[in-house]
Specification:
Bound molecules: 5,6-dihydroxy-NADP, zinc ion
Largest sheet: 6 strands, parallel
Number of strands: 8
Strand order of the largest sheet: 1-8-5-4-2-3
Oligomer: single chain
Structural class: alpha/beta
Number of domains: 2
Number of helices: 15
Order of helices and strands: EHEHHEHEHHEEEEHHHHHHHHH
Length: 385
């Protein structure tokens, strides 16, 4: 029986030229901190466009938020925001910049040591600065959700937090801004969005046909549009479809009231923290072996996935499950995202190191049944070599 609250307050403004709308979205008297990444927002002119749209407002620029944003860097922004009495944050970039802005938003009014936001998973956040975003990379869904993932370099820890107080007030999604992305980031985005759907869909049936059919539609759209984004890099419509599918993949809709997994993500975070793999690379490595390892617990959904997403109807149940897992791996490989730890130069020692980290971070009861302990994670990772 379905039973849930669905809450999502983010206003989406979608389409070419939408950055000009910032003027009506950001309060006229706001003291704005604009957060951005390494260079892309400057190089592509998006930052200039944002500055023009903000007009006469007081603006403080904060650049250098890294891919996989770090606590160390973001604490500089927290200090400045406190000193300058910033009252609005605008993130211009991909998931990393948006996640970074969410952390700053929660940390500025936080009385305690801000790393505790991560240690508590966000449950003790009592206030946050308002955030808006200008998205330049379709992948994480951070532009329309209440999650954020922050890395503390000194501890080699990458941890998530969630709070309804950090939902963006608005997000501007101009697909044309994603034309400048390198192929690797486009492919990463497709894989990340795909795995977001899988973490919420590939569990066990709870008679939620709306969530199931919607998830299957998102997966099929990614299978169709993902390769087109690489073969037709100038096609606006393809970029637009990709941006919308990635946003819908993790804005709460398909996950409402259904069991969720997230083990692939939580194990993957350890490989980014330890070895700097891109977030999507970690997912492409772990998901196929996770599907194989969990084929009994996920059996009904695996068969549904095989039939409805990949149209697999021949052979017995086991053969169709094998084929669905192989199609998933092949899809990632077709996009150019490698699916073996060895492809990234990682061997058995990396598996042992990641397991140690999982233990340290209390990631010992993962998955929709909370039964993925370290022994199961070890089997998954050894199968991922
Ligand atoms: O730093 P700059 O120079 O801006 O370059 C970025 C970055 O190097 C570049 N880029 C972004 N937009 C561009 C562009 N280059 C050219 N043209 C553009 N328009 O792309 C690189 C990657 O950017 P990043 O923001 O790191 O990528 P993504 O959006 O994939 O975000 C990944 C982060 O999000 C977290 C991940 O763990 C990772 O830290 N996630 C956040 C989630 C959430 N909040 O809900 C869920 C996800 O599962 C994920 O964990
Ligand atoms: Zn992800």
């Amino acid at each position: 029986m379905l039973n849930f609250d669905f809450y999502n307050p983010t206003h989406i403004s979608f389409g070419k030229g939408r950055i000009a709308k910032l003027d009506s979205f950001v309060p006229a008297d706001a003291k704005v901190m604009v957060l951005y990444g390494g260079q892309s927002a400057q190089r592509t002119g998006t930052l200039d466009e944002v500055k023009v749209a903000l007009g006469e407002r007081q603006v403080h620029l904060f650049g250098g938020v890294e891919a996989n944003p770090t606590y160390e860097k973001l604490m500089e922004a927290v200090q400045i925001a406190r000193d300058e009495k910033i009252d609005f944050l605008l993130a211009v970039g991909g998931g990393s910049v948006i996640d970074g802005a969410k952390f700053v938003a929660a940390a500025v009014p936080y009385a305690d040591e801000p790393w505790n936001i991560l240690l508590s998973g966000g449950s003790d956040i009592k206030a946050a600065l308002p955030i808006g975003t200008v998205l330049t990379l379709a992948a994480t869904g951070s532009e329309m959700n209440n999650g954020s993932v922050i890395t503390r370099k000194s501890l080699q820890a990458k941890l998530p937090f969630h709070s309804n107080l950090v939902f963006p007030k608005f997000s501007i999604l101009d697909p044309a801004k994603s034309f400048t992305l390198p192929e690797r980031q486009v492919a990463n985005g497709v894989v990340d969005a795909f795995v977001h759907v899988m973490e919420q869909y590939l569990t066990y049936p709870v008679n939620a046909p709306v969530q199931d059919r919607f998830a299957e539609g998102l997966l099929q759209t990614l299978v169709e549009q993902g390769p087109l984004a690489l073969s037709q890099p100038d096609d606006y419509d393809v970029r637009a479809n990709l941006m919308w599918v990635a946003t819908m993949a993790l804005n709460g809709l398909i996950g409402a009231g259904v069991p969720q997994d997230w083990s692939t993500h939580l194990i993957g975070h350890e490989f980014t923290a330890l070895y700097g793999l891109d977030h999507a690379q970690t997912l492409a490595v772990i998901l196929p072996s996770m599907m194989h390892e969990r084929r009994v617990a996920k059996r009904e959904k695996l068969l549904q996935y095989a039939e409805r997403v990949w149209n697999l109807r021949d052979g017995d149940d086991e053969q169709r499950i094998d084929a669905a897992i192989e199609n998933t791996r092949a899809f990632f490989e077709t996009l150019g995202v490698k699916t073996r730890l060895k492809d990234y130069g990682l061997e058995q020692a990396a598996v042992d190191a990641a397991l140690k980290q999982l233990e340290q971070h209390a990631m010992t009861k993962l998955g929709e049944h909370q039964d993925i302990d370290l022994a199961v994670s070890r089997r998954v990772l050894e199968a991922s070599l």
